[in-house]
Amino acid sequence: MNVSNSRDDSRSAGRRTVLKAGLAGLATPFLVRFSSAAAAYPDRPIKLLVPFGVGGPVDIVARVMAPLLGEVLGGSVFVENKPGASGNLGTAAAARTEPDGYTIVVAASNFIINKILFAKIPYDPIADFIPLVELAETPSAFGVRPELGAKNLKEFVEIAKSKSFSYSHPGFGTVSHMAGEVLKSRAGINMVAVTHNGGGPAVQTLMPGAVEFCSAALPALHPHVKSGLIVGLGVTSAKRWPDLAEMPTVEEAGFPDFDLANFTALLVPAKTPPEIVDRVSKASLEILKRPDVQSKLLTLGFAVTARPPDVLKARLERELPFWKSVVETAGIKPT
Q1: Residue 19: band (very low, low, confident or very high) from pLDDT cuts 50, 70, 90
Q2: What's the per-residue H, E or C state across 15-26?
Q3: Binning pLDDT at 50, 70 and 90, where does residue 8 land?
Q4: Which residues pair with 267 in a beta bridge?
Q5: Above 80 in pLDDT, residue 4?
């Protein structure tokens, strides 16, 4: 037996044991820090980051959820709007924040669509975020001013075939943008798209007649259709909206397979502690089960879906091929 080798092996084993103990010692403070942080959560205000302007569907649902989340979590929750680059600006900012649960991004379908329409986006929708909860779905809707003289979508298409029109939408890559381009392609009309940072600004452009047509998420158009200031030509859902029963679906107006839904969801940056992910997800689902919340969101143009993280994750993965086919059908060119 070689005594020297035996001693060397013994020393190496000892070093490995000391190294493992040292690494474990280094890891312990981090584990304690995350555990204590999760236990104290929230000990400061939580930000719901909306990557669109005020008044659009994402902003509307965020402002419904913020005070309710604050009540359930036992803290303060506020909304911050960071519009720009079709939602890419705010979403990228959220991806780069500290993964501590104090920045929650309120995402919509363009969160996925942008990956198809832009050559490069400053975040990865799957790798950079953890899904918390799918809040609700909302269709897009088409609207015009009464002065145009179109009472339904068929009449509008006939007018648009003989005139040069513009239409407003909430942003490049949004579901409403997709819906407008699909309509143009299938109806054989040519309208110039006017991009905005949210549904609210898109509708405000229509009101004074700066554009002839608006394609926006239903919540942005809903109150104006109810009041009669805007004529609702069609909604991009399989069924008519409950409190706008007089407005037909786009499918009823002669365009089959026109069911385009826009989801709204909460996400946090990757590496957010699982205890915080679980707590915020459960709090959100608890809120969304309340009949008064469901009723309020419905009157604003949202159908509550209340889907947990695993179901939302599966939906995000399905959305990519679906919207890719929509983009190809509409003939939209990536930028």
Answers
A1: very low
A2: HHHHHHHHHHHH
A3: very low
A4: 105, 131
A5: no
Bridge partners of residue 138, in order along the sequence: 262
Residue 26 has what pLDDT?
52
Among residues 161, 199, 191, the alpha carbon closest in space to that of 57 is found at 199
Q: Span 141-150, mean pLDDT?
A: 97
CB 221 within 8 A of CB 214: yes
- Please report where in the chains the tokens 């020297």 appear, as a residue: 4
Q: What is the dihedral of CA 164, 186, 87, 264, to 10 degrees?
A: 130
**3-class state of residue 196 by DSSP:** coil
Tell me how far CA of residue 150 lies from CA of 144, 156, 234, in angstroms.
8, 5, 12
Tell me: the pLDDT tens digits for 44-66? 999 999 999 888 889 999 999 99
The runs of H, that is alpha helices, within the chain are 3-40, 57-73, 88-95, 110-117, 153-160, 175-187, 199-206, 218-227, 274-288, 291-300, 309-330
* The residue to which tokens 């303060």 are assigned: 76
Give yes or no for a contact between 124 and 320, defined as CB atoms under 8 angstroms apart: no
Q: Find the length of the chain.
A: 335
Which pLDDT belongs to residue 197?
85
- pLDDT band (50, 70, 90) for residue 7: very low
Q: Using CA atoms, how far apart are residues 214 and 83, in angstroms rounded to an integer? A: 20
Q: What are phi and psi of 79, to 5 degrees?
A: -105, 135
Residues 313, 297: Cα–Cα separation, whole Å:
23
For the chain, domains (ranges, CATH) are 40-137+263-330 (3.40.190.150), 139-235 (3.40.190.10)
Reported pTM: 0.80
Between CA 209 and CA 331 the distance in angstroms is: 27
**For residue 262, which of 116, 128, 97, 135 has the smallest C-alpha distance?**
135
**Confidence check: pLDDT of 188 > 70:** yes
The two tokens of residue 41 are: 């959560």
Tell me which DSSP letter residue 147 carries: G
For residue 267, give the nearest of 131, 127, 73 by alpha carbon. 131
